[in-house]
Amino acid sequence: MTTVTFQLNWEPNGFQAPYFLARRKGFYEAEGLDVQFVEGHGSPFAAEQTARGRADVGLAGASAVLAKGSEGFDPLAVAALTKRTPAAIYTLRDVFGEPLTDLSQLAGKTVAPSATKTRILAAQALEQVGIRDTVDLLEVDPNTHHRVEHQLLDGSVDAAVGVVTNGRELEREYDRRADELAIGESLGVYGMMLVANREFAEDDPDAVRSLLRAIARGWIEATNDPEAALDALVDRNATLERRSEIELAKFRAAASELQYSDHVREAGWGVHQADRWRRLGELLAETDLLDGNVDPDDAWTNAYIDRDAPPIREYATRIGRNPAGTGG
User: Fold this and answer.
1) Nearest-angstrom CA–CA distance, 168 and 23
2) CB-based contact 157:138 (threshold 8 Å)
3) Dist CA 20 CA 165 (whole Å)
4) Cβ neighbours of residue 167 under 8 Å, at least 6 residues apart?
5) Which of 82, 94, 195, 219 has the smallest number of CB atoms closer than 10 Å to its CB?
6) Among candidate residues 186, 68, 74, 77, the one with its CA nearest the CA of residue 125
7) What structural domains and CATH numbers belong to the chain?
8) Residue 57: pLDDT band by 50, 70, 90 thresholds?
């Protein structure tokens, strides 16, 4: 049995349910792996820990992979877990004054971002609809990092930038109608990656391939039975049971809005697209997020994806998507 240390990006939550379900179902064990999860403190932390060899693999956003690459670290993205960033703009109906259904409605409004990376993505989305100069997109306040909700709750801003389901969380907790707009697909850039330590991947490529097969099975099982995925998540962190409704919503949003695409249908689970990486690199190069030059093409590889494995090759069919139809 090969031990693999898996660095999570955050504490266990609904977005991570497939990885815990894979363990509960014995998919890692069937591949000869003993996967040990370690809770994290954000994507940059996970990418750096993995690059340093303090973890064998980790969960990290694609933007964090490039940002850490520009700092001299070298995390390697070995599977594209979600094809779209989870970034979203959300608001409360009684604050905004009307349903938020289109980004153009944010013209003349004040928007508070929760993190630098989501601020950059929001700025790009607003630029695409031609209203960036009319929106007061606030700088990230380090004292309220990931805590912009209170600004929205007290009406000091018109909307906030976070991730999908943030609006639904507020609605559930405060019984105030919320609206949110996912901005990932309009940007055409990647979301979450499975990253590997390069030395670990080179020394034990079979372990990486085995892990990817098991994770693909976990995504299939979770997509087909979200409640079972939630149960596996609660097994890891019992305190999430009281938040089961929102954690289930997080995974369903990931499965329906972030993970599946036409490319997944055609190429299989986890396969990278060079154009999405290059587009993200161009977007980040226009900001001050990168500390130096980084080549997006060096940040990822498809070398460890076993495209002949049924869970990867037949992924679309196994989650009930028609391979001859259109993707999401």
Assistant:
1) 29
2) yes
3) 20
4) 88, 90, 91, 92, 178, 179, 180
5) 94
6) 186
7) 2-83+189-318 (3.40.190.10), 87-187 (3.40.190.10)
8) very high
